[in-house]
Amino acid sequence: MNLKYLLLFLIVCISCKNTNKETAINTNTYITPKPQYLVKKEGTFTINNNTSFSFSDEKSKAIASFFIDKIKGYTGIELTIAENKPEKNTIYLKLNDSLSINNEGYNLTIDSKNILVEAKTHQGLFYGMQSVLQLIPLVSEEEKNTITSVAIPTIEVEDEPTFSWRGIHLDVSRHFFSVEEIKKQLDVLALFKINKFHWHLTDDQGWRIEIKKYPELTEKGIRVDGTSKEKEFYTQEQIKEVVAYAQERFIDVIPEIETPGHAVAALSAYPELACNDKENYQPRELWGIDYNIFCAGKENVFSFIKDVYNELIPLFPYKYYHVGGDEAPKKRWENCPLCQKRMQENGLKNEAELQSYFIARVEKILQEHDKIMIGWDEILEGGITPTTNIMSWQGEEGGIKAANAGHDVIMTPTAYSYLNFHQGDYRVEPMAHGSYIPLEKVYNYNPIPEEIQEDKEKHILGMQGNHWTEYAYEGKDIEYYAYPRIIAIAELTWSGENTKSYNDFLVRLDNLYPTLDFYNINYHIPLPEGPTANNIAFIDSVSLEFNTTHPVKMVYTLDGSLPTPESEVYKNPLTFTEDTKINIASVLSTGKISTIRKLQVKKVSLKAPSSVDNLASGLVMKTIKGHFEDASAITGTPSNPKIIKNIQDANVTFDWGKDIDTTQFKAVFLKGFVDIPEDGVYYFASKQEKVKIADSLIIDPEYTLKRFPLEGTIALKKGKHPIEIVYINNVIKGWASDWNTVEVTYRKADETEYKAIDSTMIFH
Ligand code: ACM
Ligand code: ZN
């Protein structure tokens, strides 16, 4: 049982017997991110209705009011604001210029009489109070009626962040998130002292911020994806509302207007901003990269950007602005007379230098407003101005190069900080972008790579988690991907290499789940991994070993019932000699249970091969033209049969550009025999609609969006077995299945490496 809950349970029991002792107690000193220095002292401080806030300056009153609301929400106890500084029972917020900590740091002293928070800035006072808040027990709604005080441990803390950039990025172009959803995230991020919100407001799929001078940006520049979220954007009033909310939580908001690439939404509204203004641009339905970008040869593009910033500057009162700069293909510039003329006139050797010219002009616009520019690391390719700052996403190399050359850098390498990547095995987790970044990998990241020269380390401002939302449809999805990894980022950027400790973090994380529940955060719980298929064939016996990405209890049943926190605890590999249904889930110390993984093991015998002779190589292919969501939707008359020599030949691969050849939409049926090399239980994996081997449906996904291979098993004797594959060329939720290779891979049950079924194995 979670410590906080255990204590509350004890307290409630005590209060059942003794109505005078109505105090909730939290004796742990868990604060996340881990403070630089913390000592526990003897005794407790009691917060009750007579506890008051006092402060050394009037502006701190807003911080006091903020935490009065928070403490009331946690405990039901309402603190007051004192007229003068009382002797006892006060939380004193004191600005103190002489402290030897940085501007975001704080010193915290909790003794049995008072709480003292000291800092050089209001931001420091706010963080000191966030630490206090983490010590306050969460009281259930019923207990709020009976409890009149809460006790917290007496401690001494000296704390300051290691990095000044502790951020999160959110793409609201691919999918839109409402003001309420954003506010909810900011409120929780502030608990962990995250201080930067990088708001990716424009991209190919949608321009999501009202620009009064260019109303068509939000009338035409948003994709219609058939959901209720179509054409959603933030009005300037809503932007102000979010910024004010963030300011109250000491989070800077960094807007990003993508240039020169990822601009199709803008071009859809104003095609004159493209190299070719005759084309009918539409906001992109597909994910990926588009060839159509802002023209670098036209002056009206720069006046457009200038006008946009004229409206942005009053909305975002911060020094940093992000101008994008990533993934801008140069194909259109190469063929544009105006772009080529610009290169000639300015002595630019290539299109990479033209991109540098473009970005430098955008920077100039920002500098006229005293703003500092940040761009993705691709802008290094053609050279950057001395005042450019870099967000290093493709890896660390860009960041290392820029920092060593004296530019400020924020580290966001995909391999560590992409929150839209899987945090567990893709075969178990919901749809995500791909790759694999478990919590521990994020936690162990050090934003200062060894290659940074010592005197240049100061140029690494910090790190942020980036969240691209192609596969996040609602607020609860962004929470699932972000938590708990964003807390790891908060800790590694605040506490730093010398203070952080993963095992200690895991203990504190366990204690944070009730807080995340209080804020209704849909955080990730490590799922039972290990077996890669859910239907597993075996001959004599099979042993299943489960594990989780970080330690958490697993519970299971073998009788088909759903597991509860009280079910059998998984300890050792489970061995089966009979058909069995295994339902297994992870369960937190709070009793919260994960999604349930349902597996089935089945005792089978080796299937005999077909007695076929004189087969020719290749498979028979038939197609039906049309756009089909899945196999059940396929209708029409198949084409005449054709022979293909490789399974991959069933597909023509598109590039990542705009054009998707809709004439290629079709269902493809492949039929023939697969030559199995030796007797055994085989695993097959495929991203296709259906794979049938020896008359058993091995691959049959229940979902329509097919990005990752599903796995299935069957026991086969050596020889030729019938195989049927259904492949659909379609676009589902922004994903073109033609981006998948059409293939079926296999391995024997006791092997780990998959091999593709190649041309030597298929016959008809
Ligand atoms: C990026 O992920 N394209 C910055
Ligand atoms: Zn051009």
What do you see in this structure?
The structure is a single chain. The protein has 764 residues and is α/β, with parallel strands linked by helices. It folds into 4 domains: 9-159, Chitobiase/beta-hexosaminidase domain 2-like (Chitobiase, domain 2, 2-Layer Sandwich); 165-518, Glycosidases (TIM Barrel, Alpha-Beta Barrel), CATH 3.20.20; 535-603, Immunoglobulin-like (Sandwich); 619-763, Jelly Rolls (Sandwich), CATH 2.60.120. Helix content is 24%, strand content 26%. Strands 1, 2, 3, 4, 5, 6, 7 and 8 form an 8-stranded mixed sheet that branches. Strands 9-10-13-14-15-16-17-18 form an 8-stranded parallel barrel, surrounded by 5 helices. β34 and β35 form a beta hairpin. The N and C termini lie far apart (60 Å). Zinc ion binds at residues 275, 295-297, 333, 336, 338-339.
Q: Biggest β-sheet, characterized?
A: 8 strands, mixed
| Overall 3D form | globular
Architecture (CATH level 2) name of the largest domain: Alpha-Beta Barrel
State the end-to-end CA separation: 60 Å
Number of helices: 18
Q: Report helical residue fraction.
A: 10-25%
Give Rg in angstroms.
29 Å
CATH homology superfamily name of the largest domain: Glycosidases
Strand percentage, roughly? 25-35%
What is the CATH C level class of the largest domain, in words? Alpha Beta
The structural class is: alpha/beta
Domain Beta-hexosaminidase bacterial type N-terminal: 29-159
GO biological process, one term: carbohydrate metabolic process
Enzyme class: hydrolase
InterPro entries: Beta_hexosaminidase_sua/sub, GH, GH29D-like_dom, Glyco_hydro_20_cat, Hex-like_dom2, HEX_bac_N, PA14_dom
